[in-house]
Design goal:
CATH architecture: Alpha-Beta Complex
Oligomer: single chain
Strand order of the largest sheet: 8-7-9-14-15
CATH superfamily: Creatinase/methionine aminopeptidase superfamily
Low-confidence stretches: none
Shape: globular
Bound molecules: magnesium ion
Number of domains: 1
Largest sheet: 5 strands, antiparallel
CATH class: Alpha Beta
Distance between the termini: 34 Å
Number of helices: 5
């Protein structure tokens, strides 16, 4: 069942989304060759707790850490470890937090040092596809409209759209209805309504869409050993339109990136 959120609840969810957005901003400054994902995990946990929230993934379905850390060929759900990041790696960082009984859920794929052109393009297109999807998340449209838009965009570059893992409704539970696949058919699936809040999160592979899972029971990686990217925003429907709750502002600030990509999805000016 889809749980619609009131205007007040959406403002609370904006706070949760802001915590995860700021956490990724903190991490953006630290992602570099030689740093371990376990170190980044500790930083994130500390930051989240210092800001009156709880890590959202720690203990969820028995996940052992604060962050999902998925380098290179890993798609999602990688477990932080003591292996240092290397120049040329990419690292997908997925962060959840619980504040005021509501979850935030947010992901970004970072470049570590100098990354090859093909992988850079994968990251660029995957992030673009996130906004292509968000644009379709409006009252009257359906789940399939978002998935169709993301799939069409990514496949036009020859990339693989992961099927087994999907976005989701977000609220007092990390995973609520509806499921939000990154593939689909126009006009199919549940209809979007005012007050819906979802996490839209394309997981896009440079090669095949097929995946496999490590014996740790968590880590998902590409079946062909090619890289994979993951970007995720939390979005509400306000006045019938998509309203971003999470933001890459803090990441961009840390990385020195200028971007107005989020402006289209803000009905009031973003104040840091
Ligand atoms: Mg996530
Ligand atoms: Mg999610």
């Amino acid at each position: 069942m889809i749980k619609l959120k009131s205007a007040e609840e959406i403002e609370l969810m904006r706070e949760s989304a802001l915590i995860v957005s700021k956490t990724l901003g903190i991490l953006a400054k630290e992602v570099k060759p030689g740093v371990t994902t376990l170190y980044l995990d500790k930083l994130a946990e500390e930051f989240i707790r210092d800001h009156g929230a709880e890590p959202g993934f720690l203990g969820l379905y028995d996940f052992p850490n604060t962050l999902c850390m998925s380098p290179n060929t890993q798609v999602v759900h990688g477990i932080p470890n003591n292996t240092p990041l290397e120049n040329g790696d990419i690292i997908s960082i997925d962060c959840g937090a619980l504040k005021n009984d509501f979850y935030g859920d947010h992901a970004y794929t970072f470049e570590v040092g100098e990354v090859d052109e093909a992988t850079k393009k994968l990251l660029k297109v995957t992030k673009e596809s996130l906004y292509v999807g968000i644009r379709e998340f409006k009252a009257g449209n359906r789940v399939g409209d978002v998935g169709y838009a993301i799939q069409r965009y990514c496949e036009s570059f020859g990339y693989g759209v992961v099927r087994e893992l999907v976005g989701h409704g977000l609220g007092k539970k990390m995973h609520e209805d509806p499921e939000m696949p990154n593939y689909g058919r126009r006009g199919r699936g549940k209809k979007f309504k005012e007050g819906m809040v979802v996490a839209i999160e394309p997981m896009i592979n440079l090669g095949t869409h097929r995946i496999k899972q490590l014996k740790d029971g968590w880590t998902i990686l590409t079946a062909d050993g090619k890289p994979s990217a993951h970007f995720e925003h939390d979005v509400a429907i306000v006045n019938g339109k998509p309203e971003l709750l999470s933001t890459f502002t803090y990441v961009y600030e840390a990385l020195g990136i200028e971007s107005d990509e989020e402006n289209e999805f803000r009905q009031k000016e973003f104040v840091k």
